[in-house]
Write a structure and sequence with these properties.
The protein is of the alpha+beta class. 54% of the residues lie in helices and 26% in strands. The chain has five helices and three strands, in the order H-E-E-H-H-H-H-E. A three-stranded antiparallel beta sheet has the order 1-2-3. The longest helix has 35 residues.
Length: 115
Amino acid sequence: MDIKVKRYYLLKQRQKETEKELAALREEITAYCQDRGISELESGGYTLKLVQKNNKEYDDDKLYEVLSDPEVWRLLSKADPAKISSLLKLKVISEETIRPAMSLKPVQMLLVDKK
């Protein structure tokens, strides 16, 4: 078991280092593209796209105000975007009802594919 614990620890350390390096590279690449006003790039056999996306975030208190029905709130218990999305798809709640409790957070995605 000792060897498995050691291996797990080493892999977790490598994962942290990899995530740190990925974050730095992502920041450098997005800054490069933003400075040049480009959202697509071909480089060294790879294609790169910067995609703007809005993530929905919900405020627990405001959400409770607009969804004060105890049965609906019981399904949520807190503002969980995945559960809210499911309830919207099932038409248990409507987007108009929860709009006051929702804010959009812009997120820039970096997509890189090999040509």
